[in-house]
């Protein structure tokens, strides 16, 4: 399989190619986790801005990568172990190796992308619901949106029918926040539904979509004004005035799922590629967003 994509306008797929193939959603899963956490906030099961039990950071800071937690994605030993096809480390061992109890900056005092932070979000969701992550996401997000195909992959056998590029022996346990797999079309439909009031009330949706603007450009990526909301990469790109969504990548593939609210009509695009070139995958998604093609974008 090569590239695959789906373009959605007003919940209707208007353009697609191989959009029914099952693919790893990688870090687009963070958007689904954030939506589930905000549903729990709406239901008054937890709070957005109160410190979590026995922790110095809040749920908002976890969702926005402002907790001070380190990112295991930047840990060389982690990548070496994945490359050697080792079994995923138990969570306590991961936390020990990363010195997870030592914040790299005071919570709320900086920004640094942290996969580890979303492990804490996963644990919070599972604790508050008393369910597995797959079951919790199904009841909190997928069923209300009418999208029941996506699922959390827990073991290598869960990837048997999933397009993984070169990563034939990958163990999804290495994605500690839980990697969701689903079709490209479902990724576009999910984000399209999520970006309109319904699952979340207008006030919480506005909180999710309010970005912390990051300083400078993202090296070798098509972002002009990058920012991060609650589980959403947000900003202006060289192809679109504004996009909201998430890029994800892992061994063998990348996916970019973005909503362009200023397109007329608003448009949501999911683009998957069986390679690890995040920049190219984002460019292909942004080009299809229909918001604006600039001199930088061609």
TrEMBL record:
One of its GO terms (molecular function) is hydrolase activity. The keyword Signal does not apply. Keywords: Hydrolase. Gene3D superfamilies: DD-peptidase/beta-lactamase superfamily (3.40.710.10). Residues 275-298 are annotated as: Disordered. Pfam families: Beta-lactamase. Residues 3-258 form the Beta-lactamase-related domain. The keyword Glycosyltransferase does not apply. Residues 275-286 have a biased composition (Basic and acidic residues). This is Serine hydrolase.
